[in-house]
Amino acid sequence: MDRPGRGVKPPRTLIGEPARLLVTGVGGAPGLDLALTLLKLGHEVIGTDSNPLAPGLLTPGIIARTIHRADNPLFAADLMELVHDVEPDGLVCCVENELPQLVRMRHHLSRAGVRTWLPDQSTAALAGDKHAFYQAMLRGRVPTPSTWLPEQIDEIPEGVDLVVKPRLGQGSKNVYFCRTREQARVLCQLVPEPIVQQRIEGREFSADCLVDRSGHASVVLRRRLYVQAGMSMVAVTIKDAEAVKRVREAIASIRATGPVDVQGFIIEGADPRVVITEINSRLAAGFLLSEEAGAAIVEQMVNGLLGRPIEHDRLTYRPDTYLTKYVAVMSTEPRTGSDQA
């Protein structure tokens, strides 16, 4: 079947109609798992990554394309060239540092006939900057760890366990724990663009959320039982009304929309009992657990992406469902030339 000309594709709005979807970052767990789930739902998937060795580019069924990294000046032109070549119906971002670029490009993508479901520029900035996020949580009266810039270290109370991490980082890279202001001061010299946070101890959780364009959020809670390199490897779904309330307050405080990952801690016997630590404007690496527990997150995300109504009754879930992830062999084929790292 011939596809319509560039930028004039009619929108796909029929429930259940397969779409051609571009998924970025198929070298990481969120992007690869999303691409595989979309394939199972009958959609056509174009998977992109800046690394030609990314596992998603080796996966049967995925149309593989490499593009420049988001911090490369050629990223925008590279992506638009790809869009005009493959003509996707929609684009889903699974890479944190691509968001600011994609938000700026949304009108160009729309003119090319590509639907997106991205946060606005201020929301992307608040989610990506841990100090700005802390200030947004304070304004929204959402419990969150106390956070200081390096020049504010002398203001930290004595006896507070601390975490030094990149202000703009993600995952567990360059994250260090310490007990004194003096140790934090030294670590701030090692960490790029550092912040210092109060260390929180408790039951760590993530919330897989889908926020429709009216601001209503469906929330699936899962407790992170084993975390490796910032990614939840073993988790279980839980129910907790107070945590859901705090998650929704945090989402509203930065006006997030679309797929959202919220992280925090439940600290029994403490006040506040639930503390929110982070929001990511994308699917989390452990979203497959929410799917297994009955929440049709990917199906409903595609509905929202393509302008269809979100069926929140399809986003309910069962507690006490477990998920364990593991590393798998994708390919044992020999590689030559530029393919060799």
Task: Give your account of this protein's structure.
This protein has three domains: 20-116, Rossmann fold; 146-198, ATP-grasp fold, A domain (Dna Ligase, domain 1, 2-Layer Sandwich); 201-324, ATP-grasp fold, B domain (D-amino Acid Aminotransferase, Chain A, domain 1, 2-Layer Sandwich). Strand 1, helix 1 and strand 2 form a beta-alpha-beta unit. A six-stranded antiparallel sheet has the order 13-12-9-10-11-14. A four-stranded parallel sheet has the order 3-2-1-4, covered by helices on one side. The chain is globular, with a radius of gyration of 20 Å. The protein contains nine helices and 14 strands. Residues 1-8 and 337-341 have low confidence and may be disordered. The chain starts with 19 loop residues before the first strand and ends in a 17-residue tail after the last strand. The relative contact order is 0.13. The chain has 341 residues and is of the alpha+beta class. The longest helix has 14 residues, at 241-254. Helix 2 packs across helix 3 and helix 4 (121-128) crosses helix 5 (130-139). Helices cover 27% and strands 24% of the residues. It has helices spanning 29-40, 75-86, 99-111, 121-128, 130-139, 181-188, 241-254, 287-292, 297-305; strands at 20-24, 44-49, 62-66, 90-92, 147-148, 162-166, 176-178, 194-198, 203-211, 217-228, 231-238, 258-266, 274-280, 322-324.
